[in-house]
Amino acid sequence: MIATFSAGFDHIDVRAAVARGIAVTNTPGALTDATADLTILLLLGASRRAPEGRELVRGGTWNDPRPMELLGWQLTGKILEIYGMGRIGQAVAKRASAFGMKLHYSNLQRLSADAEGTAVFHADADELLALSPFLTLHAPASG
């Protein structure tokens, strides 16, 4: 058996495994929350300029409080574009909603009204991409 701790298994030669009688399994839902959490971590870090602050501290040049220098952007009220509203995209949307972000998404199919909530659907991905500097991409490599 080949068991991979991932949503997909495109990195495994399934045909070769099957030809040898080897079962291939994966864990499609196991990483949804972790991936959504990391997406929000990256979004917060980028919007609040965490890498620049870290470099100032590590470089020894953070020597006085400069409250406006690394203020960055507040997420509340900003539009988050989500390209791909599968399990992970929806988990990111739930977390971003808690920060007061407005959600816009593009997906192969529009979500049901219940799943969509207040998110705005865009059938045209190019239209979605023009809305905001905040974009998350949650699409399968084959999609």
Can you walk through the features of this model?
The protein is of the alpha/beta class and 143 residues long. It folds into 2 domains: 1-30, no CATH class; 33-48 and 74-137, NAD(P)-binding Rossmann-like Domain (Rossmann fold, 3-Layer(aba) Sandwich), CATH 3.40.50. The protein has helices spanning 14-19, 32-47, 50-58, 87-98, 113-116, 125-129; strands spanning 2-3, 24-25, 79-83, 102-106, 120-121, 135-137. The strands form 2 sheets. The chain has a 4-stranded parallel β-sheet with strand order 5-4-3-6. A two-stranded parallel sheet has the order 1-2. β4 (102-106), α5 (113-116) and β5 (120-121) form a beta-alpha-beta unit.
Secondary structure layout:
Elements: E1 2-3, H1 14-19, E2 24-25, H2 32-47, H3 50-58, E3 79-83, H4 87-98, E4 102-106, H5 113-116, E5 120-121, H6 125-129, E6 135-137
Parallel strand pairs: 1-2, 3-4, 3-6, 4-5
Helix pairs in contact: 2-4
